[in-house]
Design a protein that fits this description.
This protein has 370 residues and is an alpha/beta fold. 40% of the residues lie in helices and 9% in strands.
């Protein structure tokens, strides 16, 4: 068929045809609103979702990048929230993922023991608390955590907001010690057990979050309920598990505490503190992964800061994912409010667009590993 055509012309034709399929892909522009949406983790009501459900609208129209599941609805004092059975949770998570144009982070607090959303009464396997695991050898923690991670994988949940690496420095602590959420008062033991907990989850393809930075174990009050000052009780040794696990490359994400420590920041609680997050966590400990806030509707924050101030301070501090659990108070419009507020602050140059880009980059890098 090439009779009469010169060789250079044939080569030119082939080059044109083959080259057209090898052109560099066009860079897809991502809007500011989409980048902000990816910084949101929200919760919602419902055992199932359809195209008209508010959370589906948030995922599709406001580009929400993460959701968190609960079994109990605290504001409504209802035992019905997002979890009823293994098959129901699998279907719910599958429908949530199908609605998102990007991989969705689906998170849960499955620490084991009292802080366990996938409970036996819903048909899930029993779990051990961190305190119970910490009494055994680290190898036993791996086995217990592997069972939890398998449960999460089967449900489609890809981010466990655990392990707690708070030191059990105050056994009467109402939110850590008394609930058995700490492996031990010894930082080395906490690190050893947390390491096995994380490795077990990684073996099942599930991400983890170290919490609650820079340490909630010595507190005498509960940051869910209000101002929590650890100035007289906190010790630098509480950073040790973070330091070691970050150095080992085992910190997928770090979740902040709302504790106030005047020795670290005389003005702000940790979640809103640039000196704690940008200074200690990113600077001193060298963490360049995703930082997740604790629930920004908790009393320690919501009772003292309005939403705009909370958002500005948290983002300036270095928080990448802004968690609104909707389980202290419930606000169905929280995603649209946050996207609108942060967009306006960027346009007014109260928050730099580069700062939003940094968080977007970290979040997409984390999701690429799923």
């Amino acid at each position: 068929m090439f009779k009469g055509l010169r060789i250079p012309l044939i080569i030119g034709m082939l080059t044109a045809v083959l080259g057209s399929g090898c052109a560099a892909p066009r860079k897809v522009e991502v809007s500011l609103e989409e980048k902000i949406g990816q910084m949101l983790m929200v919760s919602f009501r419902g055992l199932s979702v359809d195209k008209n459900h508010p959370v589906i609208q948030d995922i599709q129209k406001r580009h929400v990048g993460a959701v968190i599941l609960f079994d109990y609805d605290v504001p409504g004092k209802s035992p019905v929230r997002n979890i009823a059975s293994p098959s129901q949770v699998r279907k719910l998570v599958s429908d949530l993922q199908a609605a998102s144009s990007r991989p969705l982070l689906v998170a849960i607090d499955q620490e084991g023991g009292k802080v366990c959303r996938l409970k036996e009464k819903y048909g899930f396997p029993p779990t051990l608390s961190a305190k119970q695991m910490g009494r055994k050898k680290p190898e036993a923690t791996y086995a217990a955590a592997l069972a939890m991670a398998q449960t999460l994988k089967e449900a489609g949940i890809n981010l466990n907001l655990a392990p707690v690496v708070d030191l059990n420095r105050n056994r009467k602590n109402p939110v850590i010690g008394k609930l058995g959420r700490s492996f031990s008062p010894d930082p080395d033991r906490v690190t050893d057990h947390a390491r096995q907990f994380i490795l077990a989850h990684h073996d099942q393809g599930v991400l983890c979050a170290l919490k609650h930075f820079p340490g909630h174990g010595s507190s005498t009050s509960d940051s869910h309920k209000g101002f929590t000052d650890v100035t007289p009780t906190w010790s630098p040794m509480e950073l040790q598990p973070y330091r070691q696990l970050i150095a080992e490359g085992l910190a997928d994400t770090v979740l902040t505490a709302h504790v106030f420590n005047a020795n670290l920041d005389p003005d702000h609680p940790a979640t809103l503190s640039r000196s704690v997050i940008a200074g200690r966590l990113r600077g001193e400990l060298g963490f360049d992964g995703v930082v997740i806030s604790d629930d920004l509707q908790m009393g320690a924050i919501a009772q003292h800061y309005d939403l705009e101030t909370t958002l500005k301070n948290a983002i300036d501090a270095g928080v990448d994912i802004l968690l609104f659990a909707n389980n202290s108070s419930y606000d169905e419009q929280i995603a649209s409010k946050v996207v609108a507020l942060v967009s306006e602050m960027v346009r007014k140059r109260q928050i730099s667009e580069a700062r939003i880009e940094d968080s977007f980059r970290r979040i997409q890098r984390l999701k690429a590993g799923l």
